[in-house]
Design a protein that fits this description.
The chain has about 375 residues and is of the alpha/beta class. It folds into 2 domains: about 5-165 and about 345-355, Rossmann fold (3-Layer(aba) Sandwich), CATH 3.40.50; about 170-335, 3-Layer(aba) Sandwich (Rossmann fold), CATH 3.40.50.2000. It has helices spanning about 20-30, 75-80, 90-105, 125-135, 145-150, 200-205, 225-230, 250-255, 270-275, 310-325, 330-340, 345-355; strands at about 5-10, 30-35, 55, 60, 65-70, 80-85, 105-110, 140, 160, 180-185, 215, 240-245, 260, 280-285, 300-305. Strand 8, helix 5 (about 145-150) and strand 9 (about 160) form a beta-alpha-beta unit. It is globular and about 65 Å long.
C-alpha cells in the first residue's frame, strides 16, 4: 500500500461501522488508509466492514488476550501526516506507534471512550490520560465526554464522532402502528447483558394478559438459556427469538410494532437504534453504561433500580402501561437522533479531527450549531 495523507490503525471495526466508514472514505477521496484485525480483545466483536474499505493486519493476544499486539503494515501509520489510533491502554500497538510518532513530531489522534467502563475513578483511567497527553487530540464517542475530557487535559482539542449505526436516511420512525404491543430487546445474548432476566421478568410482569409480546433480536451463548426459559414458562406464543438481524429495514419493522425497548444490562448502541426508530427504552439505573446513556437527554428513557429480575418485572409493567396512556411522538424523537447520531455526523467528526478543524461546544458538550431540547 502506498503512503497516504491520513491513516487509521484500529483493533477492530465492527459491521455497524460500515455506513460511517463508507461516508468517511467518500469525504477523504482516497487520502485515507484503514487497517484493522479480525477482532481486538473481545472475540465476539469482529471486523465486518466491506473488505475493500480496509487492510487486515495480524493480531497477537498476550496474557490470555488481556493485551493486544497488532503486527505488520506499520509504514503508513508511522509516516502519515495524521494517524488515528485506539484510545485503549491495552493495545501495545497504540502505545508503540503513539510514542514513535511523538518522537518524530507527527500529529497523532486517539479515538475511543474517555474512561474505562468503571469510570474516571478506575485504577487504569490514568493510563488513558497518559495516552492523551502524548497525542495531539482526542476523538470521543459521546458529547457528554467533552467537558470532562477538556478538564482532564486542558488545552488539548477534542472532537466527537458520536457512536452511530445508520445513515441519516435510514433513521426514521417508519410506519409506527397505532396499537403497539411488542417489547423488544436488540443486542448480544451474553451474560454481561443480563439477558437471562428478560423472559422471567416478562413472565412476572403479567403483561401477557395485556396482549404484550416480547421480541428478542441477537445472538450469543445465552440463547439456549433463553429458549429453555420460554418453554419452561409456557411462553411460546408470547416470546419470539429472531436471531441476528442487521438490516435496518427488517429492524424498522420490529420497532414499528414495539411500544418500548429494554436493556436489562448496561446501555450501549442499542439505545441509539431504539430512539432512532422512535421507540422509548427501559434500562437499569445502576449498570456501568457506555457513553450512549447520554441519549437520555435526547429522547424518552426510563430507568429502574435495582438491577434485578423482580425490579425489572415491576418496571416493565409500569412503563408499558404508562406508554399506552401517554404515547410519545416517535417522529420527533427519531428526528433528534438523526441530527445528532447519524453515520454522516460520526464521519464528519472524524474528518474534522483529521483536518484539525475547530468544533465549538456549549457548556454541556453539545455542538453549538445543534440545540438539544
Amino acid at each position: 500500500m502506498s503512503s497516504t495523507k491520513y491513516s487509521m490503525y484500529l483493533a477492530v471495526i465492527p459491521t455497524y461501522r460500515n455506513p460511517c466508514i463508507e461516508v468517511l472514505r467518500e469525504m477523504e477521496e482516497g487520502n485515507l488508509d484503514i487497517l484493522a484485525s479480525d477482532y481486538g480483545l473481545d472475540s465476539t466483536v469482529r471486523t465486518g466492514i466491506d473488505k475493500d474499505f480496509y487492510d487486515r493486519v495480524r493480531r497477537i493476544g498476550i496474557f490470555g488476550d488481556k493485551i493486544l499486539l497488532q503486527v505488520g503494515s506499520w509504514r503508513n501509520p508511522l509516516s502519515a501526516s495524521v494517524t488515528i489510533l485506539d484510545l485503549n491502554p491495552r493495545s501495545l500497538t497504540s502505545w508503540s506507534i503513539l510514542v514513535l510518532r511523538r518522537i518524530a513530531r507527527r500529529r497523532t489522534l486517539l479515538w475511543g471512550h474517555l474512561h474505562p467502563r468503571q469510570g474516571s475513578s478506575s485504577k487504569t483511567a490514568f493510563l488513558r490520560r497518559t495516552m492523551r497527553r502524548l497525542s495531539q487530540g482526542t476523538i470521543l464517542y459521546g458529547y457528554a465526554s467533552v467537558v470532562p475530557a477538556k478538564l482532564e487535559v486542558p488545552g488539548q482539542p477534542v472532537w466527537v464522532a458520536p457512536n452511530s449505526l445508520y445513515k441519516r436516511a435510514d433513521i426514521n420512525a417508519g410506519n409506527i402502528g397505532e396499537s403497539r404491543k411488542s417489547i423488544v430487546y436488540v443486542g448480544r445474548l451474553v451474560a454481561e447483558k443480563n439477558v437471562d432476566q428478560l423472559v422471567p421478568a416478562f413472565h412476572q410482569s403479567g403483561l401477557v394478559d395485556e396482549g404484550a409480546v416480547l421480541e428478542i433480536v441477537g445472538f450469543g451463548n445465552a440463547v439456549e438459556t433463553i429458549e429453555r426459559q420460554i418453554v419452561d414458562l409456557g411462553l411460546e406464543e408470547s416470546v419470539v427469538v429472531h436471531g441476528r438481524i442487521e438490516s435496518p429495514i427488517e429492524l424498522a419493522e420490529i420497532y414499528a410494532r414495539s411500544i418500548m425497548s429494554i436493556s436489562p444490562g448496561y446501555v450501549g448502541l442499542s439505545v441509539t437504534q431504539s430512539l432512532g426508530f422512535g421507540v422509548p427504552m427501559l434500562y437499569p439505573e445502576d449498570a456501568p453504561h457506555a457513553p450512549e446513556i447520554e441519549l437520555a437527554a435526547v429522547g424518552p428513557m426510563q430507568s429502574y433500580s435495582p438491577t434485578t429480575e423482580e425490579s425489572l418485572a415491576v418496571a416493565l409493567r409500569e412503563y408499558f402501561l404508562h406508554l399506552v396512556s401517554n404515547p410519545v411522538s416517535a417522529e420527533k424523537v427519531s428526528a433528534k437522533v438523526g441530527d445528532l447520531y447519524s453515520a454522516e455526523t460520526m464521519a464528519s467528526g472524524i474528518s474534522a479531527a483529521l483536518r484539525g478543524q475547530v468544533v465549538e461546544f456549549d457548556k454541556e458538550g453539545w455542538p453549538k450549531e445543534m440545540v438539544v431540547r
